[in-house]
Amino acid sequence: MIASLPNSQRVVITGIGLTSPNGNSLCEFREGLLEGRSGVRDYEIRYVGKTLAGVCTFDDLKYQKRKEVRRGTRAGSVGIYCAREAIEASGLDWANVDPAQVGVYVGVTEHGNVETENEIYEIKGYDYDTKYWSHHHNPRTVANNPAGEISLNLGITGPHYTLGAACAAGNVGLIQGAQMLRLGECEVALAGGVSESIHTFGIFASFRSQGALAEHQDPTKASRPFDRARNGIVVAEGGCICVLETYERAAARGTKIYGELVGYSINSDATDFVLPNPQRQAECVRLALRRAGIAPEQADIVSTHATGTSSGDIQECQALAEVFQGSPRTRFNNTKSYIGHAMGAAGTLELCGNLPAFEDGLCHPTLNVDELDPECQLPGLVTDGPRALDKVTYIVNNSFGMLGINSVVIVKRV
Q1: Using CA atoms, how far apart are residues 361 and 346, in angstroms rounded to an integer?
Q2: Beta partners for 243?
Q3: Phi, psi (degrees; rounded to nearest 5) at 360
Q4: Cα dist. 53→4, 41, 405 in Å?
Q5: pLDDT bracket for residue 326 (50, 70, 90)
Q6: In the chain, is it the N or the C terminus that has fewer CB atoms within a 10 Å radius of its CB?
Q7: Bridge-partner residues for 238, per DSSP?
Q8: Residue 61, SS3 per DSSP
């Protein structure tokens, strides 16, 4: 049981930096969730044309020079902004932190498509003469790029790598950071996920060809998980990086602790490229609960993965109903209804948007559930404004992805 670990093995969150379509800090993001403010808007992209997306508006020149932004990637800029903001929030005396004892673990759904698409589009105007191909292409598209750009920007000399885990990547980044701390590979971990997905037309085109790209006259109502009229995914960009430390180190600093990672799990469906497997999802949730040393009825808030697809929402609800039946106090919510699906960043963003509930006792609702799909019935689903809870001690965060990767993270109030 995680609760029995020595303080040197307990992992806590001491800083959060984020950018989302409805806020560029945890405070703004939380306010948006409690106020019901959507970040989805009209959007247009090459070849696909007019569509909808969750678009971030953070200042990419706050921590980078124009030359660095041009040379690097959008995912790198997102990661740098979030990492810097997280360090600021953590209160770390960064000038006196040993850079060799900091690790960077960033989850992504995909990376490199944006830059490759843009370069192919540009070289077309030069009759595909490769002498006009960007010499920045390789460092932009190597798989470790987002984590590598963070390490370069911050002068971090400890381990860095990017974790490809589809839409479970944000959770996986946190899990990897916690594991590396417990192994003693670093003293501080910058962990989470980033997404540049709205800048690649291929993602929109693929979802549209599947009939899985959401449409609605009112952009703010397009992302509608669990609603009978849901018709697909709203693609979003974003990022969320957490500073992770051992409880022992954080307590010695006397810093604010946002929560303790007490349970986590990753498993695989091994059944389909795209379609989820509710049985494997249920197994993943149960494993995380067991590792946290808690029963299902002790979970106060479950942050759902639900993306707004016709079948995916139903299958997740089947898994949750199986695990949490007989848990009358557990409440379920969804964050994609506000910002769309931030892909690699989704898991960390959705978890961190819920963490302030440890202090304010509120479970933010799911937006746009005008008519609940009967097959998405969950007794504790919150849809009608923020729900005040007596006390929030445990938050469970679901995050699942293509090719059957499932992840669950459980955070406890400290």
Answers
A1: 22
A2: 15, 190
A3: -90, -10
A4: 44, 6, 24
A5: confident
A6: N
A7: 195
A8: coil
Confidence band, pLDDT 50/70/90 cuts, at residue 1: very low
**In the block, which residue shows the tokens 């292409």?**
137
Which tens digit of pLDDT belongs to each residue from 215-254? Answer: 999 999 999 999 999 999 999 999 999 999 999 999 999 9
DSSP secondary structure letter of residue 198: G
For the segment 140-152, the average pLDDT, to the nearest whole number, is 97
Q: Does domain 2-253 have CATH number 1.20.1250.20?
A: no
Stated pTM of the model: 0.96
285 half-sphere exposure, CB direction, 13 A CA radius: 29
Q: Is residue 2 scored above 80 in pLDDT?
A: no
Residue 253, Cβ density class (10 Å: 0-12 exposed, 13-18 middle, ≥19 buried) = middle
Q: What does the block give as tokens for 99?
A: 């850079």
Contacts of 88 (CB under 8 A, 6+ apart): 15, 17
- Shortest CA distance to 365 belongs to which of 373, 377, 354? 354
CB atoms closer than 10 angstroms to residue 116: 14
Question: Exposed, middle or buried by CB within 10 Å (0-12, 13-18, 19+), for 273?
Answer: exposed
Q: How far apart are CA 374 and CA 376, in angstroms?
A: 5
Give the end-to-end CA distance of the chain in Å, rounded to a whole number: 16
Sorted by where each begins, the domain ranges of the chain are 2-253, 263-412
Nearest Cα to 180, choosing from 246, 108, 253?
Answer: 246
Q: What distance in Å separates the CA atoms of residue 124 and residue 130, rounded to the nearest whole number? A: 10
Candidates 3.40.50.620, 3.40.47.10, 3.40.50.1370, 3.30.565.10; correct CATH number of 263-412?
3.40.47.10
Instruction: Please tell me the number of Cα atoms within 13 Å of 400 on its side-chain side.
Output: 30
For 409, list phi and psi in degrees, rounded to 5: -125, 135
What single string gives the DSSP state of each residue in 154-197? HT--S-EEEEE-GGGHHHHHHHHHHHHHHTTS-SEEEEEEEE-G
Which amino acid appears at position 103 of this protein?
A: G
Q: Report helix, strand and coil shares of the chain as percent, to nearest 5.
A: 40, 25, 35
Q: What is the pLDDT of residues 246-272, one digit of tens each?
A: 999 999 999 999 999 999 999 999 999
Bridging pattern class, strands 160-164 and 102-108 = parallel
Q: How high is the pLDDT of residue 45?
A: 97
